[in-house]
């Protein structure tokens, strides 16, 4: 049984004081969370405040949006996996489409980051997904095979349960146009089949695959009811604590 995992990617939003205020509202809205894992992924500058605020709440983890693959050195502006671990960060986004598109992250860079994160004891959330042009060109499978094959190159089956995959079709991110539950499920099943070819079925069956792309309280439950969808990576809708809390409730409803 894969525990569903909901993550809030705040991107470049909220100062640390705004994050603290968010968290107070969020906690009063969500009540007790038992069967889910919730990850809040703020900018680096709010990590420490949120780690402190969430210390006594085991269902909530704090993540980071990025890291460098090297341990230390002359990499101005970067942070290492060990630096994140020292802040009690548990998860790190790797290969988000905004980083691939705006900051030139290739599959090779993504692969180095995945390896470095695992080595430091962080759980990478490996983001992947096709562009609209690739979808329209019938290339979804080819793109997912490449991103998974290269992104996970060199890993052993025992590493896989530590990794979360986030399927985020680029055309659905921040556009208000979510994949339908059937479209998302089709890609998730394909991702699991590719993982099964690469690492064996028992391993593939343990990997959690999140859906990301315009998830909102209104569409969360139908998406979360799909067999191969094990959670969501939420951008825009996670910036409002009430709306993210409602996505959590809808996910809990999907478990019944
Ligand atoms: C994201 O950036 O990971 C994302 C899914 O954004 P949104 O929910 O706003 O589409």
**Helical proportion?**
40-55%
Work out the oligomeric state of the chains in this entry.
single chain
CATH homologous superfamily heading: Aldolase class I
What order do the SSEs take from the amino end to the carboxyl end, as H and E? EHEHEHEHHEHHEHHEHEH
Give a short synopsis of this structure.
This protein is an alpha/beta fold and 256 residues long.
Overview of this protein structure:
Strand 1, helix 1 (about 15-30) and strand 2 form a beta-alpha-beta unit. The protein has a single domain, classed as TIM Barrel (Alpha-Beta Barrel). The longest helix has 19 residues, at about 180-200. The chain contains eleven helices and eight strands. It has an eight-stranded parallel barrel with strand order 1-2-3-4-5-6-7-8, surrounded by six helices. The model has no long low-confidence stretch (mean pLDDT about 95). With about 260 residues, it is α/β, with parallel strands linked by helices. The structure holds phosphoenolpyruvate.
Helix and strand arrangement:
Blueprint: E1 4-9, H1 16-30, E2 36-41, H2 44-53, E3 60-64, H3 81-86, E4 91-94, H4 97-102, H5 107-119, E5 123-128, H6 132-136, H7 140-151, E6 164-167, H8 181-199, H9 201-204, E7 208-212, H10 217-224, E8 231-234, H11 241-254
Parallel strand pairs: 1-2, 1-8, 2-3, 3-4, 4-5, 5-6, 6-7, 7-8
Helix pairs in contact: 1-2, 1-11, 5-7, 7-8, 10-11
Bound molecules: phosphoenolpyruvate.
Phosphoenolpyruvate binds next to β8.
């Amino acid at each position: 049984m894969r525990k569903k995992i909901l993550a809030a990617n705040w991107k470049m939003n909220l100062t640390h004081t705004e994050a603290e205020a968010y968290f107070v509202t969020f906690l009063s809205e969500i009540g007790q969370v038992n069967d889910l894992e919730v990850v809040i992924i703020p900018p680096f500058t709010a990590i420490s405040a949120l780690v402190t605020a969430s210390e006594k709440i085991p269902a909530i983890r704090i993540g980071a949006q990025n890291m460098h693959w090297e341990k230390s050195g002359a990499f101005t502006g970067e942070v290492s996996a060990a630096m994140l671990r020292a802040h009690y960060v548990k998860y790190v986004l790797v290969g988000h489409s905004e980083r691939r598109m705006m900051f030139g992250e290739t599959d090779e860079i993504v692969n180095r980051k995945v390896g470095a994160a695992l080595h430091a004891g962080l759980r990478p959330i490996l983001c992947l997904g096709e562009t609209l042009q690739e979808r329209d060109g019938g290339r979804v499978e080819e793109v997912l095979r490449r991103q998974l094959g290269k992104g996970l190159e060199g890993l052993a089956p025992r590493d896989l349960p530590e990794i979360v995959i986030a399927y985020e079709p680029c055309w659905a991110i921040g556009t208000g146009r979510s994949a339908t539950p059937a479209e998302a499920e089709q890609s998730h099943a394909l991702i699991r089949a590719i993982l099964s070819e690469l690492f064996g079925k028992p391993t593939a069956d343990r990997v959690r695959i999140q859906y990301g792309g315009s998830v909102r309280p209104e569409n969360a439950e139908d998406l979360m009811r799909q067999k191969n969808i094990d959670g969501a990576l939420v951008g825009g809708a996670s910036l409002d604590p009430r709306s993210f809390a409602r996505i959590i409730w809808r996910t809990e409803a999907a478990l019944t």
